[in-house]
Amino acid sequence: FRHFQTTTNLILLSMAVSDLLVGLVVMPLMIVTLDSCRGTNTLLCSLFHLFSFILTSASVGNMVLISVDRYVAICYPLRYSSIKPHKVKICVSLCWICSVIYSFILLKDTFSQINFSLSCYMNCTLSINYIFAIVDGIVTFYVPLTVIIVLYSRVFVVAVTQARAMRSQVSTISSQSVSAMKSEMRAARTLGIIILFFLINSTINPIIYA
Fold it and tell me: G-protein coupled receptors family 1 profile domain: from which residue to which, for each copy (predicted)?
């Protein structure tokens, strides 16, 4: 089991947990809030928005962590090998803690309007300050997107340079080193595709539901 506790796998596990919670928590709450006259009140509506924000923020944070992980693995392989799993666990934990705190701050107006006397809440709308909405877009989309693009651009440049170096010095590089480098590049490519689909989905969804 310890063999699988690599830095990348720990971050992927965190992302898998956030996706699983979307199916187990957010989707049922969304179904309940859509059928507004079956015990739905402002509390359930607020919980739906809260978990949506927490899990979205955590997923975006995990995407950034994966980008940093691949960047260090490709660009600084010696430093990457010295990173201990417990440090990654701390980073993942901080990602979740910050997501929870950030979501509570962002939705404080929504929670201030909870009314337990309403058993049939007809409109599960999100009450959020206009400035907070702008900040949320910057913090959870534009800044992470910029970081991911910059890091993966750097990874691509270094990967191409290293591939050329390996081809020109294939006789002097051990097969084990070549295999390790190819493995890291395949991981970077696969995770890059995952991040690309996530970003496409994050961009298209607001347009569809606008």
Answer: 1-210
